[in-house]
Specification:
Layout lengths: L1 H7 L7 H35 L5 H12 L3 H7 L4 H4 L2 H5 L4 H9 L2 H12 L6 H15 L2 H42 L3 H7 L13 H17 L21 H20 L5 H5 L6 H8 L9 H5 L10 E5 L5 H8 L3 E7 L2 H8 L3 E4 L6 E4 L7 E3 L4 H6 L8 E4 L8 H18 L3 E6 L15 E9 L10 E9 L4 H4 L12 H9 L10 H18 L16 H5 L3 E7 L5 H4 L5 E4 H7 L16 H6 L3 H16 L5 H6 L4 E4 L7 E4 L12 H17 L3
Helix pairs in contact: 8-9, 10-11, 10-12, 10-15, 12-13, 13-15, 17-28, 22-23, 22-26
């Protein structure tokens, strides 16, 4: 057999250069395997040396930060033992690092079988390992679990067969209806015999064309669950240069074919349109459904269709405070199933804003008096009951809006326990909590049973915030899943801000009564100018919380007294105070990156301390987009997303003088694969305009 293979080799493989290249490649591959195993052996020795001294999460973090290994590499190398790392057959047989990594991650029985196979000189590849792992897994499975697995497989196979049958029915029915339409042609009598047309009166749906259109429609319903939705073009894409994807065109074709069938079934389409060979008419749609045409819509029509998010992750927010976290997650395309606040004042803030509400079925815009963050309730004594009402519902994310360490110690412990209770009851796919650094706080990974956890440090300057503060967040995901490996926090350029520039208008915004002297107004202007010069180019220091009492001196050096907050801009007397003026609620809101439209003054007393300690909404939005990507696979352009505001307003059509607050469409933040092309095309057009003679 081997001799026959040699004889069958192409002539070019006998060339001296090719023969030498073969030797070099095999030698280099052997070296690649050798050094890959040396790394694995060194890490295995390191683990043996450290023993119980360090936690697994610490070793994991050290290998990433100090050695520069990726998350997948770390996960693989930590699965090696010294025997596997020193296995000579792996080197001698030139086994690739990908196959070695798969062997390391396999169970003990599969690993032994792989090594035995390699020692015999028999080939082992990724498919072989995958098949052997599955066979061993099935062999060890209890009878009841195996029976349940087979049940699921049978259901899956039946669903695939059902979908295939429905597809065949659609194609067969479309071909039959197309033949009926073509045969009738332009003969009015022939058309009346097969098609009932009456846009306003009774329609005979038993005529062949109407009846068959209804049958095809029911088959499309069975597969798509109604009119197929279209997920594609970002709202800000230029229709003249945007190139729709093939998936976009296909979905648009099904969408318009559904519309055409609906009109034919109900006799709403004129006989002339029924036999027309133009785009978007039934004839081309039927050709598409029958498999005789690739598209039922022109590309220009597909260009004009907007994207809509295929999946909207659901989240629950407890201890929501002033709503910073919830507002950011809504802007990141997530739906609040339940948002709980502690006080009536926080509820007033969260519930005040008129908002644009979209009907999911007909996409009709109607106005209602609610908040951009719906489903807000008081936490109260029925906290546990509200959470238990969610049992059995799939929740993607749980978060605690106010960081635990923003409370006094007794309340902090209660807030932490609330989070653990909510985690136990809701059982979300993932959770996001702000904490202190994992080395310093009392919140350990062991507390989050059933979840893998990872800590992240977020720098406020990366998110355009005025406050110079790094925030620590812990993200958890259900054990056995791959969400944490898919999660990549957004990487943004630093955008350090200056306190004086951020709040200068608010500092100078004292409302005058009208009877003040010119001297008083001039004194106020001079004091504001002196304060601006005193602040210089410094960012805002840390805002105080119960665990950090030493921030007052830093603020005092900038002419600000943070012993309390007020609800007005400073007067002349307040600007002249030795200890400095007090920050207003609006100033704190600006420092924390809240949008101007989010009215925190709706409460009866100032929510400035709550705003000061809340998780900034712009930061919650960017982290939420990363979580959205990890959960749904939808990619976002983080630079574009950062420039999209958290909220927008427009005049109300129903209430004269009122303005509607709404969250911008998530499609404005989608990653656009044609963006680079559009930028180049725009630049080319600009250059051509410059060169064009006047």
């Amino acid at each position: 057999m081997s001799q026959k293979k040699k004889l069958d080799r192409p002539d070019w493989t006998k060339d001296a250069y090719v023969v030498e290249a073969r030797k070099k490649i095999k030698r280099l591959r052997s070296l690649e395997t050798k050094y890959y195993l040396k790394i694995a052996e060194e890490i295995a020795s390191l683990q043996a040396h450290i023993g119980e001294t360090a936690k697994a999460s610490e070793v994991d973090a050290w290998l990433k930060s100090e050695v520069g290994l990726g998350a997948v590499e770390v996960k693989t190398f930590l699965r090696f033992d010294q025997d596997l790392a020193r296995s000579l057959p792996l080197v001698q047989n030139g086994v690739s690092p990908n196959v070695i990594a798969a062997i390391a991650q396999a169970d003990e029985r599969t690993r032994t079988q792989c090594l035995t196979q390699i020692e015999r000189g028999e080939p082992v590849d990724l498919e072989w390992i995958k098949l052997r792992t599955r066979n061993n897994w099935l062999a060890d499975m209890p009878a009841d679990e195996l029976a349940m697995l087979r049940r699921t497989e049978v259901f899956h196979q039946a669903c695939e067969a059902y979908a295939a049958d429905q597809r065949a029915e659609i194609e067969r029915g479309a071909a039959e209806l197309l033949d009926i339409v073509v045969a009738a042609g332009a003969d009015r009598d022939s058309l009346e015999a097969v098609y009932s047309f009456s846009p306003t009166g009774e329609v005979d749906r038993n005529l062949p064309a109407n009846k068959l259109a209804g049958k095809i429609l029911s088959n499309v319903d069975a597969i798509f669950g109604g009119r197929p939705r279209i997920y594609d073009r970002p709202t800000d894409a230029n229709p003249m240069s945007y190139q729709p994807s093939s998936g976009h065109v296909a979905l648009a074709s099904f969408h318009f074919s559904y519309n055409a069938l609906h009109e034919v079934h109900n006799g709403k389409l004129s006989p002339e349109d029924l036999i027309s060979d133009q785009w978007l008419k039934p004839r081309r749609c039927l050709e598409f459904l029958a498999g005789r045409r690739a598209s039922a819509v022109p590309d220009r029509t597909a260009q004009g269709l907007r994207w809509s998010p295929p999946i909207m992750p659901a989240f629950v927010d407890i201890d929501a405070g002033a709503g910073g976290t919830a507002l950011g997650l809504v802007a990141a395309g997530m739906h609040p199933v339940l948002v709980l606040v502690r006080t009536e004042h926080e509820l007033a803030v969260m519930s005040k804003h008129p908002v644009l509400v979209l009907s999911r079925s007909e996409h009709e815009q109607t106005a209602a008096t609610s908040s951009p963050v719906p489903n807000v309730h008081l936490q109260g004594d029925d906290f546990m009951a509200r959470l238990q009402s969610l049992q059995g519902r799939e929740i993607d994310l749980l978060t605690s809006g106010m960081p635990w360490h923003s409370y006094e110690p007794a309340d902090a412990r209660k807030a932490y326990q609330n989070a653990l209770n909510a985690l136990e009851i809701v059982k979300p796919k993932a959770f996001l909590f702000e904490t202190l650094p994992w080395k310093d706080d009392g919140y350990k990974a062991a507390d989050f049973g059933g979840y893998d956890v990872r800590w992240y440090t977020l720098d406020s300057a990366d998110y355009g915030l005025v406050q110079a503060k790094k925030r620590e967040v812990v993200v958890g995901a259900r054990k056995g899943g791959d969400l944490l490996n898919r999660l990549a926090m957004p990487v943004l350029p630093r955008r350090p801000q200056v306190l004086a520039s951020a709040i200068r208008d608010l500092v100078a915004g004292h409302v005058w009564r009208g009877d003040e002297s010119v001297e008083e107004r001039e004194a106020h202007r001079v004091l504001v100018q002196q304060w601006l010069e005193r602040c210089g180019t410094d960012p805002a220091p840390r805002l105080p919380n119960p665990f950090q009492k030493g921030t007052a001196p830093a603020w005092r050096r900038l002419g600000i007294d943070i012993s309390k907050f007020v609800r007005h801009s400073p007067t002349v007397d307040e600007l002249g105070r030795e200890r400095g003026f007090f920050l207003s609620t609006e100033m704190v809101k600006k420092i924390q990156g809240y949008p101007a439209e989010w009215d925190v003054e709706a409460a009866l007393y100032s929510l400035a301390p709550t705003v000061a300690n809340s998780f900034p909404p712009v930061m919650a939005k960017m982290v939420g987009l990363s979580l959205n990507t990890a959960m749904t696979g939808v990619e976002f352009d983080h630079e574009r997303a950062f420039r999209v505001p958290l909220l927008r307003t427009r005049p109300s059509r129903l209430w004269p003088g009122e303005r509607i607050i709404y969250a911008p469409a998530l499609s404005e933040s989608y990653a656009d694969p044609n963006r680079a092309f559009k930028i180049r095309e725009g630049e080319r057009l600009r250059r051509s305009d410059v060169r064009r003679p006047a």
